[in-house]
Automatic annotation (TrEMBL):
Species this chain originates from: Littorina saxatilis
Keywords: Oxidoreductase, Transferase
Classification via PANTHER family: GLUTATHIONE S-TRANSFERASE OMEGA, PTHR43968
BP terms from Gene Ontology: glutathione metabolic process
Record's protein name: Glutathione S-transferase omega
């Protein structure tokens, strides 16, 4: 449990359940989820104390679709209202809790910061998952990931600053970090390595990011990653991994990004 994150157990508290003392919002999360981690990084950066509720995505309660039509984490409940989608949640946190400011004030600088994480979200993340799903070092898929990692290297090089957001980690750093935290896991599954000679700036950025207290506070147990993603890539995710008493997987499910079987993923008609 981190200092801002009041709960790390697995009671499925309801959206309207009272918040634990000192908490100002509730975050529906899943321990291994990189998207939920974006929101966690933002909340931690702003020292917002919140109630984290880990959802078993294999057995979502029906009401979960009322707070996020897509049935995905993260979802924030704040002042009785729900906000979903990781980038929207993170922007919401930035605006609802303005200190410290994580985005640059200058409009062009802010646009650049958006361009960085947008590229990673649009191109890097799908390339990451395609390689993970292959489960081995498929040449073409590894080259595609390298191309987008290379673009991130180029952005950082052009920016000429230690972080995408300047002299300290900011919004774009936290929006891209969760997948870089998972690159060693991708290496375990596929033998992919982010080459330090091809990507020196990014390699130094990763090393700097690991030292950031916010990253440390939100990091996910590396031992669980490989186990989780090994199951996930074959279509049998266990979203309760890391729980004190893991439940058995009850059914065969399909996988990520539209490959899940809609009858098990979506709201029951
Ligand atoms: N575009 C969404 C993606 C979120 C997402 O895919 N979350 C996954 C967990 S990592 C999820 O909740 N999946 C629902 C499911 O597999 O049933 C965002 O940015 O928040």
């Amino acid at each position: 449990m981190s200092s801002v994150d009041a709960n790390d157990e697995d009671t499925l508290r309801l959206p309207n359940d009272p918040l634990p003392p000192g908490c100002v919002l509730r975050l529906y999360s899943m321990r291994m989820c990189p998207y939920a981690q974006r929101a966690r990084l933002m909340l931690s950066a702003k020292k917002v104390k919140y109630d984290r509720v880990n959802v078993d995505l294999n057995s979502k309660p029906d009401w979960f679709f009322d707070i996020n039509f897509y049935g995905e984490v993260p979802v924030i409940i704040h002042k009785g209202k729900n906000v979903y989608e990781s980038l929207i949640c993170s922007e919401y946190v930035e605006e609802a809790f303005p200190n410290p400011q994580m985005y640059s004030v200058d409009p062009y600088q802010r646009a650049l910061e958006r361009i960085y994480y947008n590229h990673w979200t649009k191109k890097g993340v799908p390339a990451f998952y395609s390689l993970m799903r292959a489960g081995h070092l498929d040449e073409e898929l590894a080259a595609r990931l390298d191309e987008h990692v290379g673009k991130m290297e180029e952005f950082l090089d052009k920016a000429g600053t230690p972080y995408y957001s300047g002299s300290k980690p900011g919004f774009s750093d936290y929006m891209t970090w969760p997948w870089f935290e998972r690159i060693p896991m991708l290496g375990e599954i596929t033998d992919y390595k982010m080459s330090a000679s091809k990507f020196p700036k990014l390699t130094a950025w990763v090393q700097r990011m690991w030292k950031d207290p916010v990253v440390q506070e939100c990091k996910i147990d590396g031992k669980l990653f490989v186990d989780h993603y090994s199951k996930y890539r074959t279509g049998r995710p266990d979203f309760t991994i890391g729980m004190a008493k893991p439940e058995p997987i009850k059914e065969t499910l399909e996988n990520l990004d539209g490959l899940r079987d809609p009858s098990t993923r979506d709201r029951k008609k």
